[in-house]
UniProtKB/TrEMBL annotation:
Species of provenance: Kordia aestuariivivens
Pfam families tied to this protein: Pro_dh (PF01619)
InterPro entries the UniProt entry points to: FAD-linked_oxidoreductase-like, Proline_DH_dom, Proline_oxidase
Domain Proline dehydrogenase as annotated: residue spans: 78-374
PANTHER family: PROLINE DEHYDROGENASE 1, MITOCHONDRIAL, PROLINE OXIDASE
Protein name, as recorded: Proline dehydrogenase family protein
Keyword terms of this UniProt record: Oxidoreductase
Length: 388
């Protein structure tokens, strides 16, 4: 581990002894695959059966990974992190049904968040998922250039309007807006809309940010093409760079349907692709801004090193680091201590509605074995340090 990330005192400064114990206990549980499977099934059952488990979930996994049930409830967490120089991205993590009323409700929520974060230095970005605004099958159909029925065309127009409404509002309020990346089969259509939004609202500076999932081997070429368009048409590119969260699903589908997987052939190839994307963006900061969303120490360290080599100030507003709340505090808080821009995704929403998000976190940490053991050893190190 790079020495910059070794400081557990700073990493966990906001955690009380009992919160530290809870985090240790949680990651111990999460490290146990059969337990996560059983726990997930039991929790799902208990929620569906309306058993009174919410307070138990709240006191354990929810409070570790989420900021609260509403944006207002997140404020104490936001303020505490900001005291240590770490910003927040309020992430409305309710994954609802694919219904028009739900899409409109999500739109209203994002607009409300934009109003809420305006001029709050501690919350420099808003965020949403494209599938929060429309059905995944419809994105896929549009991405494949399939002919839409009249009803589908009207439905698609509503998706476009929702995008335009939030991007316009973000531009008016001068709040940067991150748009998450999702499954590759819906991403082409989303990319086209987001590129249009950049053309429209990123004329003076990056307001709208798309996401590049660098586990896809075609993303660097996509970025280079967008760069050509940006130079020709005069707009800034905002990009969140991540490795990507849907690898198993992507590979399974590619095999089932007999096409070449869009995913890089190995973890190393993904790592190299991620780092190449970062380098490309840092070399073109005249018209780009990058948000490196990663828990990978080496990648985070490389971004910092390249910035130094290129004499980009640590606090340059065009470079951000991002981690998820409840994970990799040793990266977030130690980078912030060095003056880098850091923002943690802070999920929020009613306890039972954010359960799919929490279950994904548990499953992800179970499958990314290295990450859980790293969290555990850092927590152990800090517990030991406090005892001494
Ligand atoms: C702030 C933030 C925002 C995010 N937003 C998004 C988003 O919008 N969309 C999204 O999809 N994800 C998003 N993610 C999740 C992200 O894509 C990763 O799943 C997660 O961060 C783990 O990757 P890593 O870079 O942290 O670290 P690592 O642990 O080093 O990398 C793990 C990742 O490497 C890749 N990988 C693992 N094994 C292989 C293999 N055999 N072959 C090829 N690749 C492999 C996978 O992408 C896996 O998730 C976000 C993460 C953060 C921190």
């Amino acid at each position: 581990m790079d020495p910059i990330f070794n400081n557990t005192e700073n990493a966990f400064a906001l955690k009380t002894d009992s919160q530290l114990e809870r985090a240790y206990f949680l990651f111990k549980l999460i490290a146990n695959q059969p337990l996560v499977r059983i726990g997930t099934a039991v929790t799902n059952f208990a929620i569906k059966a309306h058993l009174p488990v919410e307070s138990l979930i709240r006191a354990t996994v929810f409070d570790h990974f989420c900021g609260g049930t509403s944006e207002e409830e997140c404020i104490p967490v936001v303020d505490k992190m900001f005291e240590k120089g770490v910003c927040s991205v309020l992430d409305y993590s309710v994954e609802g049904k694919e219904e028009e009323a739900q899409f409109d409700a999500t739109l209203e929520k994002i607009l409300k968040i934009l109003n809420f974060v305006k001029e709050k230095q501690a919350i420099p970005f808003a965020v949403f998922k494209p599938t929060g605004f429309g059905r995944i099958d419809l994105y896929e159909k549009v991405g494949n250039d399939e002919t839409l029925t009249t009803d589908e065309q009207a439905e698609w127009n509503r998706v476009l309007t929702r995008f335009d409404t939030v991007c316009k509002k973000a531009h008016e309020m001068d709040v940067a807006l991150l748009i998450d990346g999702e499954e590759s089969w819906m991403q082409d259509a989303a990319d086209e809309i987001v590129a249009d939004m950049m053309r429209k609202y990123n004329k003076e500076k990056p307001i709208v940010y798309n996401t590049l999932q660098m586990y896809r081997w075609d993303r660097l070429d996509y970025l280079k093409q967008l760069h050509i368009d940006a130079k020709a048409q005069g707009f800034h590119i905002g990009m969140k760079l991540v490795r990507g969260a849907y690898m198993e699903k992507e590979n399974r589908r590619a095999i089932a349907q007999g096409y070449t997987s869009p995913i890089c052939i190995s973890k190393q190839a993904t790592d190299e692709n991620f780092d190449a994307g970062v380098v490309y963006m840092l070399e073109n900061l005249d018209c780009m801004a990058v948000f490196a969303g990663t828990h990978n120490e080496e990648s985070s360290y490389k971004v910092a090193e390249i910035m130094k080599a290129k004499q980009v100030a640590n606090s340059d507003s065009r470079v951000w680091f991002g981690q998820l709340y409840g994970m990799s505090d040793h990266i977030s808080f130690n980078l912030a201590k060095e003056g880098y821009n850091v923002a943690k995704y802070l999920p929020f929403g009613p306890v039972r509605d954010v359960m799919p998000y929490l279950i994904r976190r548990a499953e992800e940490n179970t499958s990314v074995a290295g990450q859980t053991s790293r969290e555990l050893s850092l927590l152990k190190q800090e517990k030991k340090r406090r005892k001494l």
